[in-house]
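Quick question, first post here. What does this chain look like in 3D?
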Amino acid sequence: MHSSPLTALCPLAAEARTPVPYPHPGSPQQYPQPYLRSKGRSARGLSLSFTLPGDVRSAFIGRTAIAAALEAYALAPYVWPATHAVAELIAVTVRMSPGRELYVSLRHRDDALRILVWDQHPHHVEPDVATLCETRRRRALWLLAAVVDDWGGEWGACEASPPRLGTKSWVRLPR
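> Answer (accepted):
Ran it through. Tokens below.
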């Protein structure tokens, strides 16, 4: 099997051939554009959600949006760990579900920053495939684990709650 930096981490996704997420200029094929939805400043704190295309270049978009939101809410001390965390989560998530949209959420409440990335990677019925897939995801997130550990935070990944399908990856960074 040919290996490249864009190879899917999930063994089943690697077998499926996915389309190029962004067409070349002049191509008739169109893909959804990312959008940003801010719930604005509120007494409850920072609340930001956005959807990104399933492309590795989305990690840069996620980093930029998170950094801008944190600076706008006077939370600049969180910029370094949060941008690293979201970039790692997005990059790995995109490799788990190539070509599928992902959802990013950023919240600051109760003196902690919470980042959530939800992807459309399906739950595997076969236990061996599920274990392999989870192991590959966790190994790919080694840099995220180091950053979060250094900040005294926590992170994890689990199956998304119904009615959503897919996987929810999250990070919590305390003040």
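The mean pLDDT is 80.
The first strand starts at residue 35 and ends at 38.
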